[in-house]
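REQUEST ID: PR-0412
SUBMITTED BY: lab tech R.K.
PRIORITY: routine
TASK: structure prediction, single protein chain
INPUT:
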Amino acid sequence: MSAVIDKALGEGVIAIAQAAGAAIMTVYQDGFSVQTKDDSSPLTQADLAANRVIVDGLARLTPDIPVLSEESAQVPWDVRRHWRRYWLVDPLDGTREFIKRNGEFSVNIALIDEGVAVFGVIQAPVDGRVWHAWRDEAAYRRDAAGEVRLQVRVPATAPLRVAASRSHRGERTDALLARMGEVEVIAQGSSLKFCRIADGALDVYPRFGPTSEWDTAAGQCVLEAAGGRVLAAHSGEPFRYNQRETLLNGDFMALGDPALPWREWV
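STATUS: complete
OUTPUT:
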């Protein structure tokens, strides 16, 4: 078990994620308008409602640990560069999927300790499933039937099941897929791609183009605790967080089976 968060505290964070999911579903069912943020990404009342639930809940649960959220990310680098531990939050990952009403969106909460995601929670508001993990311990999926421990598919054999983003697939991804040989491409939105690899239902998620640190931290924790990897494409090293002024990630490969020859594909 991680030394920085115990089981009771983990359950408190899971409850906050579930409450945020409930707030999202209230907006989802009642109807919503869409705004555009400065970076041209969409914003809805659900993003803001979930953000309030999470930020307020974490402030009560762990008042000594700062929070960096997509919807309240105006913390200067000169401040956050001194953080050893902090919560990294995407209150509604997959806003485009939310707007399309396809159900493929999630709530992401990760605890970062010295640059590493050591605890992660991903909640799927539509069906209520929760994935959660402690680094160097285990990853779990919880639903109405109970809780199961997760294990990636190893060895991953052809046809490889490859996650493709519903909203961000491009020519570089298509070229990589052509180099991979026999594959089954499965469209999936939001950080649920990491969860499905952790579940053993998918094998690879290649991502070219920018993501933000809150998009990957919880998913990386869940996938790595289940035996997989999230690796920067340029270096082959796992992502670390809050190491630079920018909050943007580079290209990456998420793998269930770490032995897959991903460098040959890239």
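NOTES: The mean pLDDT is 93.
REVIEWED BY: pending
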